[in-house]
Structure formats: structure tokens, C-alpha cells
Design brief:
The complex is a heterodimer of chains A (77) and B (357). Chain A is α+β, with helices and mostly antiparallel strands. Chain A is built from one helix and five strands. Chain A has a five-stranded antiparallel sheet with strand order 3-2-1-4-5. In chain A, a hairpin with a 2-residue loop joins strand 2 and strand 3. Chain B is 46% helix and 14% strand. In chain B, helix 3 runs antiparallel to helix 4 and helix 4 packs antiparallel against helix 5.
Chain lengths: 77, 357
């Protein structure tokens, strides 16, 4: 289904962010967000992975990442 | 490392027509297996983030499934709020598609300004109705709508749509001018309201996950989503333009529904989930089609959790994509295929490969 991985913002420049999740980095646009973000914040990428669609509170992001890590480790997907 | 989740659509062209279609997916349909043994309230809090593309529909389907398993009936005010938030998500997601993706079909850049406005309105409405963000709570979250703010957001949706609808209609005219209006025309096998009658039994029996990955109903692979929902009246063989038009009509219908529901909002306190045992199935209409959550509770803890998403129906190897594309004319085939997949909106990236035999 439409799984999303909370990604941590590593850097921001000119409306573009480099984000990281599970060791993989990618660039995404911050143009869809209606609130400012900072390095260290967590975002969800939209369909296609080129836009940040939503800001995720850190506690929710970490809990989601913990769950995904568990799923990958168990091979249960 | 998280796998790169994608759909692969491989098409073979012979003598000017599509002669072969292969649809492959590596979507993680068993992702919820790890919910077993966990507190359902904690799991529901993760759903809108874990499945954020249709986060509202996913969160509410989860809440409703747990409510049914627990015999928990939320205050009627939550029903109105939930319908409003689902309609807002459908409107926003369709609009995002037009602003962000459909512009490719016109060889134009995405309209990020319109996309941002829609997303802002959608997320704003969620915060206005459930200020603590707990719309996913079984029994309902803390519902405290500020009606003046709701009206402002609805005006924002109206304004966005006034710009988006002309763009969408332009896409439909462009496809028709390219001779693609009837591309992929195939009999409409629409998902029944509330899903197949045997859905609960099939999910309950699906111990190996094969039904979740490739669902059917007595051999029928239904189409679900805007085309199925909007019915089409006596439309029997919708083509490409009909599918885009169905999304346009659904945006308009969703905006009307928002206006109606906005007058019926009330306050309600959060529900209280008690540890019980039971089973519950909830079906909601998400942006891309029918979404089903089924949960089994054992003494208040999740025993089993299943999610059947609309993409598994629409991109089933023998589903509407294969049915529609087989035999279709192959003029400008890559463009036509991209448009067709866009019309079905799989919510994951897809790769197209065309070979000639």
C-alpha cells in the first residue's frame, strides 16, 4: 500500500532539502509545505518522492521508523 | 534499507496494437503483520504517517475497524467530521494530481502554488477539527471545530478549485485532440458499494497474504476509485477521457459535500477504548478507491491486522489496467500509457517499458 518513510532533513538550500531515511539520501522540494522547517525536522515525501508533503512530529516519526526497522529486520512484509 | 516500492508496467506492441501487458508490483502488502501484539491505540497513531498518502482514510479506517472489533460506538459528531475530512482528502489529492502531475500531459511545469494551497487547506482542516491531532482515536478524538475557521478553509478549497478545474478540463480536451479519448475503453467492472459481500470472510481466511496481494471476488477483479464511484450512468466502456472526467466530477462533488457537512459540525469528546476481544472490518472510500482495514483484538491487543488497498485491485495483473490496455491502439503509446496510469493513480512510482514484437 502507500507506505511512507519519515525522512530527516539534513540540509536546506533555496527551498530544496536533502533528506535521509535508513541511510539513503535524496533531494526534495519544500514548496508544498505551509510551515517552515529546519534541519533535524522530519517530513513525509509525497508520491514520486520529489516533494515533502507533510511535516511529522519527531516522536511520531521515530516511532514509525522504529516500526519499519522492525519489519525489515523480521522480513515480515 | 527500505526497498524502492514501485509498479512495473511492461507492454508489448504488435502490428500497431498492444498485444501483451504485464503488471508487477513489489508493494509491501504485509506491512501490518508487525502490528500483532501491539496496543491498537499506539498502532492507530502511526497509521496516518506510515501510510501518509491517504493518511486520513487510513487513520479513519483503522479507527473504525478497531471500534467495530471493540463494540465501541463513537458520538455521531465524529461521523460528520470523518466524512468531511475524507471528502477533503479526496478533493485535495485529486487536485494535487492535476496541479502537480497532469501538467506533464500538457508539457508544462507543475503548478506548485495551487498544490501548496490545497495541501495547506487539507492539513489546516484536520487541525481545526481535531486540535490535538487525534482524529484516528477509536471512539473519536477531541473534536472541537472552530466554525469560522472551517468556513475560511472551505473558501480556500473553493478558491484553489476555481483555478484547478480549468486546468483539468484543458487536459481532457488535449487528450481528446490527440485522439486518445477512447484509449483503453473497456467494460466498467465497478466495485460494489461497501466492497464485495464476502470481503470479511476472504480476509479472515487469507493466512498467507495472497488475497491481500491479488484480491478478487469470485474471479472478478473489480475497478475501484473515481470512475467506479461516479458511475457514469449508462457509460458502459469508459475510455481515457472518461476516467479523467470522473476525477473532475468527483472534485466538484467533494466540494459540494464539504459545504453541506460544514454546517453540521458539532463538538465531541474523545472516545475511551477498553481492552476487549473481537473482530472488525471497516471499509472507507479513499481517494484511489476502496480501502479496507480488518483487525482482530485479543484482550485489547492486536492479534491480527490487515489492510487491503485500492491499488491492489486496480493494478492486479488481471485487473482494469490489463483489461483496458490489451488490444488498444499503440499510436503515441508511451504518452498514452503514462496518461492511462495517471488516470488510475497508483500512488507509487511506476516504470513503463514498451517492446515491439
Amino acid at each position: 500500500m502507500c507506505m511512507a518513510v519519515p525522512s530527516r532533513i539534513l540540509s536546506i538550500e533555496n527551498g530544496m532539502a536533502v533528506v535521509e531515511a535508513f541511510g539513503a539520501t535524496r533531494q526534495c522540494s519544500l514548496m508544498l509545505l505551509d510551515e517552515p522547517v529546519a534541519v533535524g525536522d522530519y517530513v513525509i515525501l509525497g508520491a514520486g518522492g520529489t516533494f515533502a508533503a507533510e511535516i511529522v512530529p519527531q516522536d511520531t516519526a521515530l516511532a514509525t521508523l522504529d516500526y519499519l526497522a522492525q519489519v525489515l529486520a523480521d522480513g515480515k512484509a | 534499507m527500505i526497498p524502492d516500492i514501485r509498479l512495473d508496467l511492461d507492454v508489448t506492441v504488435t502490428q500497431g496494437r498492444i498485444s501483451g501487458v504485464t503488471v508487477l508490483s513489489n508493494r509491501m502488502v504485509g506491512l501490518t503483520q508487525g502490528f500483532a501484539g501491539k496496543n491498537p491505540v499506539q498502532v492507530l497513531a502511526l497509521l496516518p504517517t506510515l501510510f501518509s498518502l491517504c493518511g486520513m482514510a487510513q487513520g479513519l479506517a483503522g479507527a473504525m475497524a478497531v471500534e467495530r472489533a471493540a463494540g465501541l460506538v463513537p458520538h455521531r459528531a465524529h461521523g460528520v467530521a470523518r466524512d468531511l475530512l475524507l471528502a477533503a482528502e479526496i478533493l485535495a489529492e485529486h487536485g494535487l494530481g492535476v496541479a502537480r502531475d497532469w501538467q506533464f500531459l500538457l508539457s508544462r511545469e507543475p503548478r506548485l502554488d495551487l498544490a501548496r494551497g490545497l495541501k495547506s487547506a487539507q492539513m489546516g482542516l484536520r487541525r481545526i477539527l481535531y486540535p490535538q491531532g487525534d482524529f484516528w482515536r477509536p471512539g473519536g478524538g477531541l473534536l472541537a471545530p472552530d466554525l469560522a475557521q472551517v468556513r475560511q478553509v472551505l473558501d480556500q478549497f473553493q478558491d484553489c478549485l476555481s483555478h484547478i478545474l480549468p486546468l483539468a478540463e484543458e487536459v481532457v480536451r488535449h487528450l481528446a485532440r490527440k485522439g486518445l479519448a477512447d484509449f483503453g475503453a473497456t467494460p466498467l467492472l465497478a466495485m460494489p458499494d461497501d466492497g464485495p459481500a464476502e470481503l470479511d470472510a476472504r480476509l479472515k481466511a487469507d493466512l498467507d497474504g495472497l488475497f491481500l496481494a491479488r484480491p478478487d471476488s469470485q474471479g472478478r477483479i473489480y475497478e475501484t476509485g473515481p470512475m467506479a464511484r461516479m458511475g457514469g450512468g449508462d457509460l458502459r466502456r469508459p475510455g481515457l477521457c472518461d476516467r479523467f472526467q470522473a476525477r473532475i466530477e468527483e472534485m466538484q462533488a467533494s466540494l459540494r459535500l464539504l459545504a453541506e457537512l460544514g454546517h453540521s459540525l458539532e463538538q465531541a469528546g474523545p472516545g475511551c477504548f477498553e481492552p476487549v476481544s473481537g473482530q472488525g472490518l471497516a471499509v472507507v472510500e479513499a481517494t484511489r478507491g476502496m480501502l479496507a482495514h480488518r483487525v482482530e483484538l485479543v484482550d485489547g491487543v492486536i492479534g491480527r491486522y490487515q489492510i487491503l488497498a485500492p491499488t491492489e485491485w486496480n493494478f492486479h495483473p488481471q485487473g482494469v489496467v490489463s483489461r483496458a490496455l490489451l488490444g488498444a491502439p499503440a499510436a503515441d503509446v508511451e504518452f498514452a500509457l503514462k496518461a492511462f496510469v495517471m488516470a488510475l493513480d497508483p500512488c507509487v512510482p511506476f516504470d513503463l517499458a514498451v517492446s515491439h514484437a
